Amino acid sequence: MSPSGDASPSRLPGRPPPRRLPPMGRVLLAKPRGYCAGVDRAVVTVEKALELYGSPVYVRKQIVHNLHVVKTLEAKGAIFVDETDEVPHGATVVFSAHGVAPTVHEEAAVRELRTIDATCPLVTKVHSEARRFAREDYDILLIGHEGHEEVVGTTGQAPDRIHLVDGPEDAAGVKVRDPERVAFLSQTTLSVDETMTTVDALRERFPHLQGPPSDDICYATQNRQVAVKEIAGAVDLVIVVGSRNSSNSVRLVEVALDAGAPAAYLVDDSTEVDLSWFDGVETVGVTSGASVPEELVTGVMAWLAERGFTDVEEVTSADEHLLFALPPELRREMRTRERAAG
């Protein structure tokens, strides 16, 4: 079984629960974990759109990268599509938290769609930086993973100026027009350490490299990575709850291993936890990605408790209190209806 998390379910439906592990085990539960402000805003946006406009509400791409969130919203009446041209003319569409290119807004306008933009404000910040650097005639080195929806959306802000750099090994091959007018931006869900390694490699080639006025890696990504680092050296195994297409969840597995965890696995929920991982394990670390509802962590904790891991300690590395307002399109509609009702 690979530590990257390609797990098999621990048992098939209908079989008796596996044996209890002796003796009482310990769990270090990382905090913060789970939903960040941007994810919470995006999920509530779809729920509020369904409440205001009724079903169906279309969502371009997964609103956030979590299988259970998507299925829950589908059950409430959301319809997920890959592209705008799949949305019926004049319907309501929500753009995901990962952001979209300006061309997507243009396509929606042609189809006369009612659009609600749930792009995380921290991603919107990166978009603004990309447009600013492009206006100032910089070549922009975007650190990120090819094909990720956030990277696609950011590249679309200045497609003639942005060059993707997928890790430090890509730094040597970057070609720019003027080595003295180069700037970097990054995908918000990357590993902080890996991103800085890439920035260092780029700076060796481009000593005049400019950066954004503040770090692009989102606060929630950083906090969850710090939290998993704090527990990684004190456990025999780390379980990260999150979907495999969630960049920040995948990074948590990598960070845990780099920080000294002997093993780390990514699971969507408790059905994917494998008993074979626990031979000789006395202490387990548990955390979750920024798009994971807490009920999925609770399910994993219950799985562990049933097998003797009942000594639980929550390890707090930061307190999060940030909240983002709902998209302005929704807030305007809510105010209009409140006035009409009043």
UniProtKB/TrEMBL annotation:
Its EC number(s): 1.17.7.4
Keyword Iron-sulfur: yes
Keywords: 4Fe-4S, Iron, Iron-sulfur, Isoprene biosynthesis, Metal-binding, Oxidoreductase
Binding-site list for [4Fe-4S] cluster: 36, 120, 218
Cofactor note: Binds 1 [4Fe-4S] cluster per subunit.
Binding-site residues for (2E)-4-hydroxy-3-methylbut-2-enyl diphosphate, renumbered to this chain: 65, 98, 148, 188, 246-248, 291
Cofactor: [4Fe-4S] cluster
Domain of life (superkingdom): Bacteria
Residues that hold dimethylallyl diphosphate according to the record: 65, 98, 148, 246-248, 291
UniProt-annotated catalytic positions: 150 (proton donor)
Catalysed reactions, semicolon-separated: dimethylallyl diphosphate + 2 oxidized [2Fe-2S]-[ferredoxin] + H2O = (2E)-4-hydroxy-3-methylbut-2-enyl diphosphate + 2 reduced [2Fe-2S]-[ferredoxin] + 2 H(+); isopentenyl diphosphate + 2 oxidized [2Fe-2S]-[ferredoxin] + H2O = (2E)-4-hydroxy-3-methylbut-2-enyl diphosphate + 2 reduced [2Fe-2S]-[ferredoxin] + 2 H(+)
Pfam families from the UniProt entry: LYTB
InterPro entries given in the database record: LytB/IspH (IPR003451)
Listed pathway(s): Isoprenoid biosynthesis; isopentenyl diphosphate biosynthesis via DXP pathway; isopentenyl diphosphate from 1-deoxy-D-xylulose 5-phosphate: step 6/6; Isoprenoid biosynthesis; dimethylallyl diphosphate biosynthesis; dimethylallyl diphosphate from (2E)-4-hydroxy-3-methylbutenyl diphosphate: step 1/1
Residues engaged in binding isopentenyl diphosphate: 65, 98, 148, 246-248, 291
Gene Ontology MF: a single term: 4 iron, 4 sulfur cluster binding
Region (Disordered): 1-23
Keyword 4Fe-4S annotated: yes
BP GO annotations: dimethylallyl diphosphate biosynthetic process; isopentenyl diphosphate biosynthetic process, methylerythritol 4-phosphate pathway; terpenoid biosynthetic process
Family: Belongs to the IspH family.
Function: Catalyzes the conversion of 1-hydroxy-2-methyl-2-(E)-butenyl 4-diphosphate (HMBPP) into a mixture of isopentenyl diphosphate (IPP) and dimethylallyl diphosphate (DMAPP). Acts in the terminal step of the DOXP/MEP pathway for isoprenoid precursor biosynthesis.
Name assigned to this protein: 4-hydroxy-3-methylbut-2-enyl diphosphate reductase
